[in-house]
C-alpha cells in the first residue's frame, strides 16, 4: 500500500483520482488515527522507482500495489448494469479486462465473490435504483460474512458515472462498497480488486483525455445475442446546462477507425447481425490519427456550438461508410447524434446504404426556443424543424426518435406546450421522455432555479407520454399492409411468438412457422434470420405481422428502397 504525506502536492493530485484506503474500522476515531499515521508516513518518492517528476506521473503506473500482486483464487464476478447502452458496452470492456486476469463470470448471486455495479447518474431516479440495489448487496455481504462461507468474503465495486460523480463520498456513505472506479479507470480494476483482498478500499476516478479502450476487445455478456454495441467515442464536450455527463465521462475523444472496423469484422464473424455505434454525439466523431485534408465540421445555419470545431482526420460519415461496408448483411445503427452537427454527407451515406438503419435519433430536448437557449443546446425550434425537413428529404421514409425533457428550470406552461406541438409536428417513432432532474455541478445547478414543482413536472410528463403513445398508435397503424424486413432476435417469453425488429427498430411479433427460404425449400425462423413480414395489426409499441419468406438485406432491397417499400409486391 502506498502512503502519501498529506502535505505533499502529489497527495492532492493522487487523492483526487486514485486512492487506496484502509478499512480497519468504520469509526471516525480509527480513521483519524490512520490519517495521522499517514501524515507521518514516508515520502511517496521512496516508493516510486524511476519517476523523477510528480507531474509526469501516470496514476495507472503508480506502484501503490506491486503488479506482481494478483489474486490467487479464480474469483467470480456478478455484473449489474444500470443506465444507457454505453454502460452495457463499458461492462463488456470491464469483463474483457477481468477475464484476461483470470476472473470468471457468474449470473448466480450465491456464487459471486465480487459484485460490480455499472452505475448511471443522469437523473436522481437512476441513482435511487442503485442505492436500493446496494441495500440488497450490503445484506448479502453481511449474510455471507456470518455464514459457513465466511472465508469467501463478498466485495462490492461501483463503476461508471455515479462512481465518478460521488468519488470517495460513495464509500463514506455506503460502507459496504470496497471499490469505486470511474469510466476511464477500468484497466486498473484488477489491481483495485486485489487491494481489497487485505480489507482495504480502493478508489480510482481519474478522467483521461485519451482513454478509448481501443485495444481492449470487449467480451459480450450475452454471447447468443445477434445484436451488439460498439463505443466509437467517449465523453462529451457539449455542456448542455442540465447534463451531468461531461462531468462524469470527461472530455470527448474518438476511437481510431481501424479498431472499430476490426471489432465490427470480429462481431460479423461471430454471427452478429446488427451493431449499434455508440457515442454521446457521434456526429462530432473525428479520428485525428488519420491525416486528411483539414476540413472543419460544418455547422448548419441556425446552429451554434460551444466548443471549437475539430479539423482534419476521418469524420463520422467516413466511419459509417467503412463500417457499413464490412458486411452488407449486417445492420448498422448509431446513437446519439446532436442535431447541431448533422452534415449532409452522413445523410447521403444513410440513404445510399440499405444496411444502415432508417431510424435516426435526433434528441430535441424541448420544443421551445427559449428553453433550448437555457439548455444551451445550440439551436432554436425553427432550426430543429428545418433539420427535420432536410433529413426527410435526404432519406425518404426515415423514422425519427427523440429525447425530451419537461419541467426544466423556468419552463412555463406555454413553453411546455411548444414541446407538445413539436411532437405533434415531427411524428416521432420513438421518444424517451423525462421529467427534469437537477444535478449538482451542472451549469443549471449553478445558474438556474429548479422552480417547476414536482407535481407539475409529473403532470407534464404524463401529458407528453399520452401524446407520444397516441401518435405512435397512428404511425404504426399506417404500416398495416406493408412488408418490412425484420431481423429475428428471439421469442416472446409469454406467448412463444417470434420477436424481431424492422428497419425503424420497431418491435414486430409473429408466429413461428416454416416459410420459403432462399434455397427454394422451407424452414422455420431463428435468431439472426432476416425475414420479410407483412404487418397486419399495430399497437403503440409493437407491430404484429405474418412472416412471408426468408430474405437478406441485399435481396430485399435489390429493386426497391426503404422509402418506396409501400410499392413492394407481397411474396
Ligand atoms: N434530467 C432529466 N433528463 C436528463 N437527461 C440528461 N440530463 C437530464 C436531467 N438532468 C436526458 C436527456 C438526454 C438523455 C440521455 O437523458 O434527454 O438526452
Ligand atoms: Fe449531455 Fe448534452 Fe452531452 Fe448529450 S450532448 S451527453 S445531453 S451534455
From TrEMBL:
Instruction: Please give the InterPro entries that the UniProt record associates with this protein.
Output: Elp3/MiaA/NifB-like_rSAM, Methylthiotransferase, Methylthiotransferase_CS, Methylthiotransferase_N, Methylthiotransferase_N_sf, MiaB_methiolase, rSAM, rSAM_horseshoe
Q: Which residues form a coiled coil?
A: none
Q: Which UniProt keywords apply?
A: 4Fe-4S, Iron, Iron-sulfur, Metal-binding, S-adenosyl-L-methionine
What single Pfam family name could you report for this chain, choosing any that match?
Answer: Radical_SAM
Does the keyword Transport feature in the UniProt annotation?
no
PROSITE patterns annotated for this entry?
MTTASE_N (PS51449), MTTASE_RADICAL (PS01278), RADICAL_SAM (PS51918), TRAM (PS50926)
PANTHER family in the record, alphabetically? CDK5 REGULATORY SUBUNIT-ASSOCIATED PROTEIN 1, MITOCHONDRIAL TRNA METHYLTHIOTRANSFERASE CDK5RAP1
Query: Per its UniProt record, what NCBIfam families does this chain match?
Result: miaB-methiolase, MiaB/RimO family radical SAM methylthiotransferase
Name-wise, this protein is CDK5RAP1-like protein
Amino acid at each position: 500500500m502506498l502512503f502519501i504525506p498529506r502535505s505533499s502536492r502529489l497527495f492532492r493530485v493522487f487523492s483526487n483520482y486514485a486512492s487506496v484506503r484502509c478499512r480497519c474500522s468504520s469509526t471516525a476515531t480509527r480513521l483519524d488515527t490512520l490519517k495521522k499515521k499517514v501524515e507521518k508516513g514516508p515520502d511517496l518518492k521512496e516508493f516510486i522507482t524511476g519517476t523523477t517528476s510528480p507531474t509526469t506521473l501516470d496514476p495507472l503506473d503508480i506502484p501503490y500495489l506491486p503488479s506482481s500482486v494478483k489474486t490467487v483464487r479464480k474469483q467470480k464476478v456478478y455484473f449489474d448494469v444500470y443506465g444507457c447502452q454505453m454502460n452495457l458496452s463499458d461492462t463488456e470492456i470491464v469483463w474483457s479486462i477481468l477475464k484476461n486476469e483470470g476472473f470468471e463470470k457468474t449470473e448466480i448471486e450465491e456464487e459471486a465473490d465480487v459484485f460490480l455495479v455499472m452505475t448511471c447518474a443522469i437523473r436522481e431516479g437512476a441513482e435511487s435504483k442503485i442505492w436500493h440495489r446496494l441495500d440488497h448487496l450490503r445484506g448479502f455481504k453481511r449474510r455471507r460474512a456470518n455464514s459457513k462461507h465466511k472465508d469467501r468474503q463478498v466485495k462490492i465495486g461501483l463503476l461508471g458515472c455515479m462512481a465518478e460523480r460521488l468519488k470517495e463520498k460513495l464509500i463514506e456513505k455506503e460502507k459496504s462498497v470496497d471499490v469505486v472506479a470511474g469510466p476511464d479507470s477500468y484497466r486498473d480494476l484488477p489491481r483495485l480488486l486485489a487491494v481489497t483482498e487485505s480489507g482495504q478500499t480502493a478508489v480510482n476516478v481519474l478522467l483521461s483525455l485519451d482513454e478509448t479502450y481501443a485495444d481492449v476487445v470487449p467480451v459480450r455478456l450475452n454471447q447468443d445475442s445477434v445484436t451488439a454495441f460498439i463505443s466509437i467515442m467517449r465523453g462529451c464536450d457539449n455542456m448542455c446546462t442540465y447534463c451531468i455527463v461531461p462531468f462524469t465521462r470527461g472530455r470527448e475523444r474518438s476511437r481510431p477507425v481501424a479498431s472499430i472496423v476490426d471489432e465490427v469484422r470480429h462481431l460479423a464473424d461471430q454471427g452478429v447481425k446488427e451493431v449499434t455505434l455508440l457515442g454521446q454525439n457521434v456526429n462530432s466523431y473525428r479520428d485525428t490519427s488519420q491525416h486528411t485534408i483539414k476540413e472543419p465540421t460544418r455547422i448548419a445555419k441556425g446552429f451554434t456550438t460551444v466548443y471549437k470545431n475539430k479539423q482534419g482526420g476521418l469524420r463520422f460519415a467516413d466511419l459509417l461508410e467503412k463500417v457499413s461496408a464490412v458486411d452488407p448483411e449486417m445492420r448498422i445503427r448509431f446513437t446519439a447524434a446532436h442535431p447541431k452537427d448533422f452534415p449532409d454527407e452522413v445523410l447521403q451515406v444513410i440513404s445510399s446504404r440499405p444496411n444502415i438503419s432508417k431510424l435516426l435519433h435526433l434528441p430535441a430536448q424541448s420544443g421551445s426556443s427559449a428553453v433550448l437557449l437555457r439548455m444551451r443546446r445550440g439551436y432554436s425550434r425553427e432550426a430543429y424543424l428545418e433539420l427535420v425537413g432536410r433529413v426527410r428529404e435526404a432519406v425518404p421514409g426515415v423514422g425519427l426518435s427523440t429525447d425530451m425533457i419537461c419541467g426544466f428550470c423556468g419552463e412555463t406552461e406555454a413553453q411546455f406546450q411548444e414541446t407538445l406541438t413539436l411532437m405533434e409536428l415531427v411524428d416521432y417513432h420513438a421518444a424517451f421522455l423525462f421529467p427534469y432532474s437537477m444535478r449538482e455541478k451542472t451549469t443549471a445547478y449553478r445558474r438556474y432555479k429548479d422552480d417547476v414543482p414536482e407535481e407539475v413536472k409529473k403532470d407534464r410528463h404524463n401529458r407528453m407520454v399520452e401524446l407520444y403513445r397516441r401518435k405512435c398508435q397512428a404511425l404504426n397503424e399506417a404500416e398495416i399492409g406493408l412488408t418490412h424486413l425484420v431481423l429475428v432476435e428471439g421469442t416472446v417469453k409469454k406467448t412463444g411468438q417470434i420477436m424481431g425488429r424492422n428497419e425503424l427498430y420497431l418491435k414486430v411479433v409473429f408466429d413461428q412457422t416454416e416459410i420459403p427460404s432462399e434455397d427454394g425449400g422451407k424452414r422455420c425462423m431463428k435468431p439472426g434470420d432476416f425475414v420479410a413480414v407483412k404487418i397486419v395489426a399495430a399497437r403503440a409499441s409493437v407491430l404484429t405481422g405474418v412472416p412471408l419468406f426468408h430474405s437478406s438485406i441485399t435481396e430485399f432491397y435489390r429493386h426497391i428502397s426503404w422509402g418506396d417499400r409501400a410499392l413492394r409486391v407481397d411474396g
